[in-house]
Amino acid sequence: GAAVDVVASKSTAMVWLAEQGIRMPLEPEQQSAFWREQAEVPENGTLTCHAWGNVGATIASGSFRTQGMVIMPCSMSTVGKLASGLSGDLLERAADVQIKEGRKLVIVPRETPLSLIHLRNLTALAEAGVRIVPAIPAWYHQPQTIDDLVDFVVARALDQFELDCVPLRRWDGGELRP
C-alpha cells in the first residue's frame, strides 16, 4: 500500500464536529489513531499526521518524493491562495510544492454555487496542471447510502493516481461493471 501523509487544516476539526458529530483530536499523534479508525487503515499501513502549522515538515519540501496530493474537501479560500501562489500553512505549502515540482495535485471543491472569482481561481489551477474533481457524485451506480456517494467521489479522486482503493461500479457502455 501507499504511504499516506495527512494534514488536517484548522477548520477540519470544526467541520468534523458539525457534520459528523465526531470530535477530531488536534495533536498529530492522536490524529493518527483517529484517522486510522475513521478510514479503517490496517496497522501495517503507513499513515503519518502532520501539524497544520508545521511548515518545516518533510512534505513541505520538493525533495520529499510523493506520488502527489489530494485536498478533499478543498475550500474556496484554499483554492484562492493556491491560485495566487500563497502558502501560509503546511497544507498550502505542501500543495504549492506539488504544483512547482510538476506532481499530481487533486483538489475536490464542494462549494456551490461557484462565483466568477471561484471559477477563475479553479481555471488558474487547472492551467497549472491541478486536477479538479468536484464533489459531484454520479447516479448511474445506483447509490443506496450517503457512504456510496462519498465512496464515488473518493474513488474518482484516487482514479487520478490510478489507484483502486475504493470499490466502484464503473460505467461500461450501458452496463455497470464492478
Main sheet: which strands, in order across? 3-4-5
Low-confidence stretches: none
Radius of gyration: 17 Å
Helical segment count:
6
> N-to-C SSE series?
EHHEEHHEHEHEE
Largest sheet: 3 strands, parallel
Secondary structure: helix percent:
25-40%
Approximate shape: globular
Structure description:
It is a single chain. The protein has 178 residues and is of the alpha/beta class. It has a domain at 1-52. The chain is built from six helices and seven strands, in the order E-H-H-E-E-H-H-E-H-E-H-E-E. It has a three-stranded parallel sheet with strand order 3-4-5, sandwiched between helices. The chain has a two-stranded parallel sheet with strand order 1-2. The mean pLDDT is 91.
Please write out the topology.
Layout: E1 4-7, H1 12-20, H2 28-39, E2 47-50, E3 68-74, H3 76-83, H4 90-100, E4 104-109, H5 116-127, E5 131-132, H6 146-159, E6 170-172, E7 175-177
Parallel strand pairs: 1-2, 3-4, 4-5
Antiparallel strand pairs: 6-7
Helix pairs in contact: 3-5
